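Re: the request from the purification team.
They wanted to know what the chain is likely to look like in 3D before they choose a buffer screen. I agreed to run a prediction and write the result into the notebook, where they can find it.
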Amino acid sequence: MLLGILEAMNATRIALPKERIGLSTREVKRRIRRIISEADPASTAVRAAANAVSAAVIAAIGASSAVGAAAG
């Protein structure tokens, strides 16, 4: 599940740096996706939740910018 969270948050290169593990970011992501696909459904749910949170934050920032532009 933790790998799913890291991948969904695009934090793999921070938590698993190339210098430490010897794999490129692309290879790490590919392996994590393979592990997640073979893992329990909880990883999929965590990934979906993280994606939903990201989308909500982006929407809130966009709405805030639009309101600021209209007021200014």
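For the purification team: The longest helix spans residues 41-71.
Please add any questions underneath this entry.
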